[in-house]
Input
Amino acid sequence: MIRILYMASPNNYSTAPVSEFLLICFPNYQSWQHWLSLPLCLLFLLAMGANATLLITIRLEASLHEPMYYLLSLLSLLDMVLCLTVIPKVLAIFWFDLRSISFSACFLQMFIMNSFLTMESCTFMVMAYDRYVAICHPLRYPSIITDQFVIKAAIFLVARNGLFSLPVPILSSRLRYCAENIIKNCICTNLSVSKLSCDDITFNRLYQFVAGWTLLGSDLILIVLSYSFILKAVLRIKAEGAMAKALGTCGSHFILILFFSTVLLVLVITNLARKKIPPDVPILLNILHHLMPPALNPIVYGVRTKEIKQGIQKLLRRL
Output
């Protein structure tokens, strides 16, 4: 999809047509972008390498061919796509000053970020349900959490979040951009792009707010309910060591949910308090939100899960 923009000239008459946006990362701190690129690049390489290692380990290790690890593979795939959608473009801006992005690429990036972020949240919800069944209904677990269940869950989360997120870039792309094409951000977020329009963006902002909080909010409620039932069941266990073992099976998953929710909450708060903090802070947090969870998720599971740790050791011995 290509739209034509017209940059305003000094006499307020539109002149040269423009068919792209310009991403201006950290407009107030241009001088230290090259220094920031180093830790971002290292985190990007860590995220891609760790998730790729986890996926290969689960694929090659027969003992890991179980629904719980298939869900973890799905989470790793979502993390890798989010990283590849955001970070290479940010590094290209920092290193080569490649700030331009076409309309179609901008709105595609916007769709992937919105849909895959909510898909990740939905995956955490399905994983919480998996842990709920494993602890509260262990005898029924093999009959409930099956390979078919994982396939249906994957189809559901892709369809639900893809359909709800699709109107966001569509609404933004249908706006008239008649004056400015400079996005004061490193990525094409809906609000950063739509506020450049000369049309009313009230419905655009309202839809993203309602859809985002409906999807993320419903996932969070179901996660909290799952862990409430898990905690209730664990407190009833009388056998020595059984409580620690039960909680241990949820530990890695709970850490990932807590980190994902905390980063998202900080990002929301900083955007709401935009007038009281430097404008570059939300931009940096937005980048880190697409980078830190993908880098840490496979490490947490690799360190805390014995089966995955053994699978990675076997993989390394083969190399």
Summary: Residues 1-18 have pLDDT under 50 and may be disordered.
